[in-house]
Amino acid sequence: MYRSHTCGELRSNHIGTTVTLAGWVQTVRKFGSITFVDLRDRYGITQLLFGEELNKVLDENPLGREFVLQATGTVSERSNKNPNIATGDIELLVSEFKILNKSAVPPFTIQDDTDGGDDLRMKYRFLDLRRNAVKRNLELRYAVNRAARNYLHGNGFMDIETPFLIKSTPEGARDFVVPSRMNPGQFYALPQSPQTFKQLLMVSGYDRYYQIVKCFRDEDLRADRQPEFTQIDCEMAFVEQEDILNMFEGMIKSIFKEVKNIDYTEAVERMTWEEAMWQYGNDKPDIRFGMKVCNLKFPAHTFPTKQSQSALIDGVDFKVFDEAETVLAIAVPGCSEYTRKQTDELTEWVKRPQIGMKGLVFIKCNADGTYKSSVDKFYSEEKLKAIADAANAKAGDLVLILAGTEERTRKATSELRLEMGKRLGLRKDNEFKLLWVLDFPLFEFALEDQDGGGAGRWVARHHPFTSPKPSHIDIMINNSPKVDDLDKYLEHPYANIKANAYDMVLNGNEIGGGSIRIYQRELQEKMFAALGMDAEEQQHKFGFLLGAFEYGAPPHGGIAFGFDRLCSILGGSESIRDFIAFPKNNSGRDVMLDAPSEINNKQFDELQIKLDLK
Amino acid sequence: MYRSHTCGELRSNHIGTTVTLAGWVQTVRKFGSITFVDLRDRYGITQLLFGEELNKVLDENPLGREFVLQATGTVSERSNKNPNIATGDIELLVSEFKILNKSAVPPFTIQDDTDGGDDLRMKYRFLDLRRNAVKRNLELRYAVNRAARNYLHGNGFMDIETPFLIKSTPEGARDFVVPSRMNPGQFYALPQSPQTFKQLLMVSGYDRYYQIVKCFRDEDLRADRQPEFTQIDCEMAFVEQEDILNMFEGMIKSIFKEVKNIDYTEAVERMTWEEAMWQYGNDKPDIRFGMKVCNLKFPAHTFPTKQSQSALIDGVDFKVFDEAETVLAIAVPGCSEYTRKQTDELTEWVKRPQIGMKGLVFIKCNADGTYKSSVDKFYSEEKLKAIADAANAKAGDLVLILAGTEERTRKATSELRLEMGKRLGLRKDNEFKLLWVLDFPLFEFALEDQDGGGAGRWVARHHPFTSPKPSHIDIMINNSPKVDDLDKYLEHPYANIKANAYDMVLNGNEIGGGSIRIYQRELQEKMFAALGMDAEEQQHKFGFLLGAFEYGAPPHGGIAFGFDRLCSILGGSESIRDFIAFPKNNSGRDVMLDAPSEINNKQFDELQIKLDLK
User: Fold this and answer.
1) pLDDT at residue B302, rounded to an integer
2) One of this protein's GO BP terms (chains A, B) (predicted)?
């Protein structure tokens, strides 16, 4: 037996007992003829005291950081207690010890504030994983895993494993493929999600399915994307949207409770996609704070039901606004006294390429009731007040106005809002606000080729298995998907079809998304056709699903949560990589393993493939 | 809302209430002007009664098998109750119904005794999954999953996900590989197991790790092998073999209790590998019954510590035994009265190519104390009695004797023992007997090339990370692995090194295996070198692990259970395929998906590979 207790276990009630510990040397401190060693394991740190005699042994066999040590001795009361650690009342008076393994000097310190850079820590990930900060993340990840499983189990869900070696059906993201040695010339694909399998399980009558499962997408890695990632994947039969929303806000609340001890008792807010875009310029708004967008001007077709406010800005011959497709404002609370330097800095911020605006107009709503603006020469104080009022600005606020094309301006306004929210401390780490975003458009229109499927065509916004809202099914059935004039695709009836789809948003991050699915063969075929698949392609790629729909498919729907992302938000971090034991870098490499790597000729021969390097 | 209750839920206390059910039409029975429908879902079957009026509607919209139906009505007492189903006391008097989806006639019946053959059921797996028999298997699988997780969680294990896109380190089984688009010319491999990652996690201090995880091996598929399979994968630090054995027999007992309600209170038997081979001819003996092997003759080097009994058979000039390397016997209880036809059939059985023996010698130990044998002309009755006594035969038993080369004869005897055990009903489905097999040889000697590593060399019997028994480490350190005379490899010191490895055997099946690992860089390098890897290859393949061992690796060990196999044994089936939702066939194909399949030119272009078909 290597140990009788862990390094986090001993308390004053153990004083006098003989115990054996094993762990890693965190620090060694010598004071004259005695030595203190902090011994660390997964459970904590215990102070070891080596008296005069053993100290001599240590002189000949010096301990280094990260040595693996086994020590037996008597638990004793500490003279100067350390209230910061759970074992701080005691120390172990060592009578016997054994160095189980030595350690070279680590390339960085194993501490919360390590001196190791990103690359070094990734190369020595096995050492980085020893740091408390990383350990806490993985412990949180396991707690979320456990809480999700317990909730789903308690609600009658069954974990059913779906295959990893499946069929390549390229569209949307790229598949990773796996050459088959036993079927030369043919390839498996790794699943981008278990989507079709979980739908088949509903057809099979399994009713409530879940899986916490790896998925794979061979995409160019933007920051914080991983080629392999984990989903909490769920599906239910005989349900409507309302059933799913209730079930899964229950799951997230249960995770909050179990993992963070947060009682999230209020109902989760709901908002249509259109309202989210209108109020926040974004389909995953952070609703921890207000600062809603004031839509001064926008293209009529974008929000057909909304009233234009362009009268507020028109008629003064201010070309920037007159020529812009869209003009949006936000009122930043309490910032009316920004200096020239501060407003200049904000202007530079929105002109950065990531934001891409040409400039920033501001109105200071002074505390004394006067208004001051960067466009004073165009707008009277009265007009400025009217605009500020429209933006819901109070005395002391700063109104920021952006103008340009619809998509870019809306995105920029959303980003500016988030940035100001962050600067003002309105996006608090320990506040969690959930939101359901509903009624997404079923289709997007690809003006340019996105995925090899050709330009000028409809693509599924969620995926091709998403059902239209029941009242919109007829629009799909009764209209051809053909778009004659690409410039006017927004006027095509398909542009108005809304999906029975929903996203769960947490603090401005999409943590989950799903939909009620199509379960009738005819409608599924119509959908595939709308996306440009002819009957042959449909049969080749999804024949099994269309076939399954002929044998009594029940109504069903589901959702998938991004497990890595969910953990990172709960852990208060921006980076999912911090919550993955062995992540890959932005080139998809595991720098610790040095993977991917070359394979040998025997492997090429057996797989009957060869390289074709450009 | 599609339903208020499930089809397995209603009891007599619901009588009089109005409910809505949804499910699949199992059967339709018309009696004059009324119709009975059995409606099925995951939870059970409920009888629906359609009265005269609705019956007319049904006449115009006839229901077929597997239609998806929603029905509302009043729960009523049944006139003729069905005690065989939980809902048999009631029926639903339908007032309203809706056909949610139609179904074509299924290609086979959705019943326990279906009329569908294997191939058909695999093609329509989504229908096969509706059958009770298959559903029970997947429910059992989930119950085992859940029980294992709960036990491991309760014992402080953490589920930590390890990567699927790793590095190819071919040896032993073949890797599946995945071309990397972002790193042209390079490939990931899919993990054969998370072995090195779980060891790194021990180096990182995570102490108790588990995962229920998919693994991949590109092997030629023998019956009942799958290219992707699931392991319960576990590792512990600061442990000795005894700790692991205790922890994991606890897990299996806990699974027995949770899943089968079996109290497996007795200690799990233990046996060395040598004893298992000696007593059963097999390293995974089924110990539900005796019929142990009598080793009449065997090569001295195989069991150096054992006494030869060849005096019993020598000296009568019976060439078959005299020329055989090995002669083994078993005493089959109560079969002394086998007819000529029966012994002939047994002789044919051992001569089948899978068994490969040249013949079978038998001794009938008659009830009257006389002995009759197929080799009467060589052996006196006295000698026959001596042999029978050595085989532990009683009056009424039949002694079966096989002779030939050591390996084949031992294997054949083991197979014959299992076959006779089966015929005599000694291998009971509902009896479960666990066994630890210990002290495996560390090395095997590959006389022929097995995996491209070359012939005439040592290969790791378990894997290259397995530690020798502590007392055998010196043999490894102090001897060169070089074998000068291939014929005498058994005399090389390495042949006697035993591993700190253990297998868990259940009813004659290996359900788990593991070892205490090497955790010192020098010993690991020695092991790699013994297996024929030079320093460069070691560094290329396992540099990260050797590196990790330099920074304070703790003593550690672990085990992996074959989850599919464990489920199939607990479910009383021979086939793991029955316990996998979407299995592949013996050519590694998913016939439902039609995968693997061809990929398109764009995919080849992006991956910068091409076919090289022979």
Assistant:
1) 86
2) aspartyl-tRNA aminoacylation
Beta carbons within 8 Å of A179's beta carbon, 6+ residues apart:
A186, A187, A607, A608, A609, B177, B179
Q: Residue B117 class from Cβ within 10 Å (0-12 exposed, 13-18 middle, 19+ buried)?
A: exposed
pLDDT at A453: 61
Contact at CB, A597 and B167, closer than 8 angstroms = yes
Tell me the CATH number of domain A12-101, given options 3.40.47.10, 2.40.50.140, 2.40.50.870, 2.60.120.10: 2.40.50.140
Cβ distance A612 to B599 less than 8 Å, yes or no, reads: no
At B257, list the tokens. Answer: 């209790």
Q: Across the interface, do A228 and B164 touch by the CB < 8 Å criterion?
A: yes
As a whole-number percent, the residues of chain A with pLDDT over 70 amount to 98
pLDDT band at A361 (very low <50, low <70, confident <90, very high): very high
DSSP at A322: H
Cβ distance of B205 and A130 shorter than 8 Å = yes
Domain at A132-265+562-606: CATH code: 3.30.930.10
User: What DSSP string runs through A237-279?
Assistant: ES--HHHHHHHHHHHHHHHIIIII-----SPPEEEEHHHHHHH
Query: Rounded distance, CA B248 to CA B262, Å?
Result: 16
pLDDT value at B108 more than 90: yes
* Rounded average pLDDT over B394-404: 97
**Which residue does chain B place closest to A585, by CA atoms?**
B182
**Start-to-end Cα distance in chain B:** 58
Answer whether residue B111 shows pLDDT above 90: no
Cβ neighbour number for residue B451 with a 10 Å cutoff? 13
Task: Report H helices in B355-504.
Answer: 381-390, 406-423, 473-478
pLDDT at A590: 95
Of A309-323, A472-486, B323-337, least confident by mean pLDDT is A472-486
Please count the other Cβ atoms lying within 10 Å of the Cβ belonging to residue B299. 12
Q: Where are the domains of chain B?
A: 12-101, 132-266+562-580, 289-427, 441-498+520-553
Global confidence as pTM: 0.95
Q: Note the ipTM here.
A: 0.95
Candidate from B2, B141, B205 with C-beta closest to A555: B2
Mean pLDDT of A141-168: 98
CA A603 to chain centre: 37
> A91 - beta bridge partners?
A76
Probe site for chain B from A121, A155, A533, A551 (most B CB atoms < 10 A): A551
Looking at domain A289-427, its CATH class is alpha beta
Which pLDDT value is given to residue A487?
A: 81
Q: Nearest 5°: phi and psi at B295?
A: -85, 90
Query: Taking a C-beta distance cutoff of 8 angstroms, is the pair A579, A562 a contact?
Result: no
Higher pLDDT, A454 or A73: A73
